[in-house]
Amino acid sequence: MSEGDSEAKSEDRQSVDWDARFRADDAPWERGELHPAFTLWLDAGLIAAGKSVYVPGCGRSLEPLAFASLGLTVSAVDYASSAIVWQWQQFKAAGLTGTLVTGDALAFRPDRPVDLYYEQTFLCAIHPSKREEYEAAAYAQIAPGGHLLALFMQKQERGGPPYGCDMADMRALFSGERWAWPDAEPQAFPHPSLGGKAELAVALRRKP
Fold it and tell me: Which of 17, 37, 36, 35 is closest to 27 using CA atoms?
């Protein structure tokens, strides 16, 4: 178990005080349960023991512990130190280990590229001006042939966070030169505490 500050320091990307939001339990993006897409990808065989997974902007989500419970090697990063302390407490109580880091999720680099990158409410939380940096970081963090398990937030209103992840924009951002898109249409999962806004589940394969 490791808990600490990311060595890579950068200017704050957000105007939101995420740590204060967590401390005040003002976190409506939290589902309080595993995202149903987790089961979708587990049943599809993408989530499996022995794989490594990175969870950027993990917050107090249940997925990092669920991954570890299934035998995956977990790395998780968040700006909010209180969220990482919470994650550490869950792992400790379960007798499990993981790399849990307070810091910049885009600057973080695991010891080696991971098999899975679990994207839930991170991309929609950062300003759209940082999306090219996000894509470049994900491409560097994921091993060739690995998957970005993405949940793209659909939102008509302007501004954010959360910022809408229009699918035309996502296809341009994660271009076919570097990412293989599935043929099937993405499955929609309405968010119960964000006005039913749909999150579209897409498993992108990182090309060599």
Answer: 17
Q: Is the pTM of this model over 0.85?
A: yes
SS3 content of the chain, % helix, strand, coil (to 5): 25, 25, 50
Domains of the chain, first to last: 38-102 (3.40.50.150), 133-157+167-208 (no CATH)
As given in the structure block, the two tokens for residue 14 are 């957000």
Residue in 71, 52, 43 with CA at minimum distance from that of residue 117: 52
CA distances from 61 to 31, 143, 208 (A): 8, 24, 30
- Write the CA distances from 148 to 72, 167, 177, integer angstroms: 15, 15, 15
- Distance, in Å, from the CA atom of 7 to the CA atom of 166, rounded to the nearest integer, reads 33
Question: What is the per-residue pLDDT across 163-203, written as a single tens digit (0 to 9) for each?
Answer: 999 999 999 999 999 999 999 999 999 988 777 789 999 99
Please give the Cα distance from 23 to 208 (Å, whole number).
41
CA dist., res. 108 & res. 144, Å (int): 18
Which tokens go with 92?
């400790």
- Tokens standing for 40? 């979708």
